[in-house]
Design goal:
This protein has about 150 residues and is mainly α. The chain is built from ten helices and no strands. Helix 3 (about 20-35) crosses helix 5.
Length: about 150
């Protein structure tokens, strides 16, 4: 019996096909977020830097390298960038909705195991950034954490 895709792929990064598809995901998400009436104000000022940072973030959490942490600042950067934004529950839900839709546009794998795990991790990450957005930068200085890897 031939192994399934998930038995062959060691990481989620391998499963999606590497950095190219993750960059397409970041580009598709950013384009729709900028145009979205609920989220647009938070993304309009970020430009290409957001696509670059989101791509590096996705590459790292999907299990490849540590460029986001080493070059951009990792989890501490994520917290700083979201501090004081006061993201609402409705905005959090919309973020998740747009990122999941962007996965379709970027043609990420649509197998149930991947999509289920991807959605769980996106929802968890959105909840973390929403909590950070409700704190000031000064309050965040006392809280530490690290960027985790998304695994099966």
């Amino acid at each position: 019996m031939a192994p399934t895709t998930l038995e062959v792929a060691v990481t989620m990064y391998d499963h999606v096909g590497g950095e190219g598809p993750l960059r397409r995901l970041a580009e598709a998400f950013h384009r729709t977020a900028v145009a979205d009436p609920l989220l647009g104000r938070m993304f309009r000022y970020t430009g290409d830097a957001h696509v670059h940072h989101l791509t590096a973030y996705l590459v790292e959490v999907f299990g490849h390298g540590s460029a986001f942490t080493d070059e951009i600042g990792g989890f501490e950067h994520v917290k700083r960038m979201h501090a004081d934004l006061r993201i609402t529950d409705e905005q959090q839900d919309r973020f998740v909705e747009l990122l999941l839709a962007a996965a379709d546009e970027a043609e990420l794998p649509d197998d149930e195991a991947f999509r289920s795990r991807f959605e769980q991790e996106v929802r968890r990450a959105a909840a973390i950034t929403t909590r950070a957005s409700r704190l000031s930068k000064a309050e965040l200085e006392t809280r530490h954490g690290r960027l985790g890897r998304w695994t099966w």
